[in-house]
Amino acid sequence: MGHLSEDMTKETVASTAWRPQREQLLIEYINTCERFQKAYRKHGNKYGLLQHTEEPKHQWETINMNWATGLVPGGKQNFNAFLIIVDRFRESVRSLPSHKEHTAMDTALIFWNNLISTCGVPKIIISDRDPKFTSELWTNLYDMLGTKPAFSTAYHPQTDGLAENTIQTMEGIIRKFCEYVLVSTLNLNNLKGTKKIKHSFLGPFTIIKLIGENSVEVKLTGEFSRKHPVFPVCLVKPYFQEEEDMFPSRKKNPTPPETVEVEDTPGPVKKILKFRKMRLNGKGQRQYLVRFKNQTADTDRLLAEDAILDGDLHLRRFRACQAESMLKK
């Protein structure tokens, strides 16, 4: 029996059949339908409680940081990104010109020279889980400054509505300004085809524990096991399993398992061997040939800088070796 929503199914069945406890049985049938649970999007109020961000008492005490990228290069240094910093006390904004290719060290220098030196040390920094902000270098910087990092939950970056809206507005202004100066055709070559229709939900998975009030840790299995296991509760919903032989006419053929693209790397990085420069969408980029721990040269792989685990550490070692080799020559 195929069916849509609960109300539409009730209406269809009411015109053709009747039996005692018909509505209760229909609800049970729909709720335990595995295909329906995976394909039907959840509507209405989301699970979880709103968590209020602590109100700052002084200027630049609590800030939000994010990136505006994908901009037309401009200026003498061909800046193609902005580090946008929002002060939650006065809602003032600073847009610091940068490059998308900047490392965690480059970002830290921009942050230090343009904010800390003029506005002081913030008490709380709210940001997404950008690899630059979660790197070992930035972790040490937080400790040194006595600053508390507040990262958004994985898969749910809506950390602070005020700051997110400000950043979106700034991005719109910057991009609009660039449109008046130069018209970029890069995006015309980057249009992707429509993705294959997939289920809205995956699973079922077992909840291991509640983290805080609005997140859960889930036991991911199979090819999902390498994904981050913590999700906000607004992205999960209960799974209803039907009792055995309750609906014998229902097809029991299991739906084929969903697949996700997972970066299949052989393990942690041992060292960077060399790099190459290449042009992608008209922009110069670097790729690094990486050797993995306990692996042979057969598993060496070219990776972008932001795809290298503990990239800052390995890049520092690689550049130091390069400098030493040049001195010997």
From TrEMBL:
GO molecular function: RNA binding
Keyword RNA-binding recorded: yes
Integrase catalytic domain segment(s): 52-223
Keywords noted in UniProt: RNA-binding
One annotated GO biological process: DNA integration
Gene3D superfamilies referenced in this protein's UniProt entry, alphabetically: Ribonuclease H-like superfamily/Ribonuclease H (3.30.420.10)
Domain of life: Eukaryota
Name of the protein in question: Integrase catalytic domain-containing protein
The species this protein was found in: Austropuccinia psidii MF-1
